[in-house]
Amino acid sequence: MELALSLGDTPKLPFSFLDKPTKDPLPNLFLTQQGKPSELEKTSSLDPPIQLDLLPFSPVLRSHHSSSHLPIPWLTQPCGPVRERELDVNRFPAMTEEADDGASLSSPSSSVSPFPMDFSMRNNNAEYGGRNKRENEGEAERVSDDDENGSTRKKLRLSKDQSAFLEESFKEHTTLNPKQKLALAKQLNLSPRQVEVWFQNRRARTKLKQTEVDCEYLKRCCETLTEENRRLQKELQELRALKTNQPFYMQLPATTLTMCPSCERVATNPCNNQTNNKAKTLHFTNSQQAQQQKAQAHQIPS
DNA sequence: CAATTGTGGCTCCTTACGTCA
DNA sequence: TATGACGTAAGGAGCCACAAT
Length: 302
Fold this sequence. Notes:
Protein name: Homeobox domain-containing protein
Distance between the termini: 37 Å
GO molecular function, one term: sequence-specific DNA binding
Largest sheet: none
Strand content: under 5%
InterPro entries: HD, HD-ZIP_Homeobox_LZ_Class_II, Homeobox_CS, Homeodomain-like_sf, Leu_zip_homeo
Mean pLDDT: 52
Radius of gyration: 35 Å
Coiled coil: 215-245
Order of helices and strands: HHHHHHHHHHHHH
Family: Belongs to the HD-ZIP homeobox family. Class II subfamily.
């Protein structure tokens, strides 16, 4: 009996995308829901592999279609100074990297945004406000205090749209090169650091789930082996009992006490399975008793 | 050409916060 | 309303690969 105990190739595991090369382009992401290239893709100057615009969350689509199809709460909310300050606070932990590669891309204080969909306005408001209006109402002042103190770590909750967008990207490639990271950050109006962290955490979650699946698989293997061991122990007892009750077999080499491959039972008697010649052979080989039986059956002198 | 150094990305572990039952 | 469990964004340490010196 052979058991495959490979951690590396568990075909049942639902993470096939992990094996995809990270340099693959994003074919799916180039398409809209209708399967047509998005407007942004048509006009984008980015290299094909890093085009991340599209999907239901494409800012172009949002800007071209009414929000009735894809409700975007933050697009309908007023954009006042308070909200901008909230964004600044949220982005505080990621400022170090923005300083050199992404600050200008997603700066909420920028009066002219190149992106029709301003994710920045939702970082705190849309998501929280949508679920808990009361909490949202008190958010601005509290955040402002923390912002001035600069001592409290603020935590950003990505919107469902942003998370879904990142998920789609993750399905295509679990790691990002700098260009892809920047493009995605630009697309979602997040800092590159936030995108990077999201992918890191996402990989960690995937690995954790994979570990759980592997653990479950090994657990089942262990149970199977335990059962097999129990069965073999039982058969060993049968063998020993047979050895005690039938001293005739004690004269034979140990190899003559074999197990029938067809029925997986100890060969105390010739197997009746006429279709398994090998089993019959095993049962009769080197057996004086068997030779006698053969001689009698076929009239062959022994 | 080998050693050193700086940089960026990764994993792993942890913390802090938001949400929900 | 308070609370604990859970999910997750983010910080930090350590490691590695790679390019520049």
